[in-house]
Design brief:
Elements: H1 3-23, E1 31-36, E2 39-45, E3 50-55, E4 60-66, E5 69-74, H2 81-84, E6 94-97, E7 102-107
Antiparallel strand pairs: 1-2, 1-7, 3-4, 4-5, 6-7
Length: 118
């Protein structure tokens, strides 16, 4: 390897690290959108903590909001997939409680693509 080759490799690695740091960050969420039965039930600002109980066919789903993040805290569904998803912190993130027909999504200006958008 020549000295110029080493510089090219270092430059390429620096470019890769910069691209990961800039491009793979999700956008900052601005609001939480809660849907039940396909209709928007609430659009909540993520600046203040609060708890929202959303009725569904199986029972009540509890949505918890904290500054900059949101989660499904409790759901009557049998498998608890939406509860296990934990805190959603990036714009475009979604938690779907399919058996109870309730979903939580975070919206913002820089929403990344997720599996639903892909």
């Amino acid at each position: 390897m020549r000295p110029g080759d080493v510089l090219v490799v270092i430059g390429g690695l620096a470019l890769c690290v910069h691209a990961v740091a800039v491009l793979w960050q999700g956008g900052r969420p601005e609001a939480a959108i809660v849907r039940a039965g396909g209709k928007v039930v609430a659009e909540l600002d993520l600046s203040a903590p609060r708890v929202l109980d959303v009725p569904g066919p199986l029972g009540t789903t509890r949505i918890e909001i904290q500054p900059g993040r949101a989660r499904v805290a409790a759901d009557p569904g049998p498998r608890q997939y939406c509860v296990r998803q934990g805190w959603l912190t990036q714009a475009g993130a979604v938690a779907i409680c399919a058996p109870n027909e309730v979903s939580l999504s975070l919206s913002g200006r820089g929403a990344d693509y997720d599996s639903l958008n892909y």
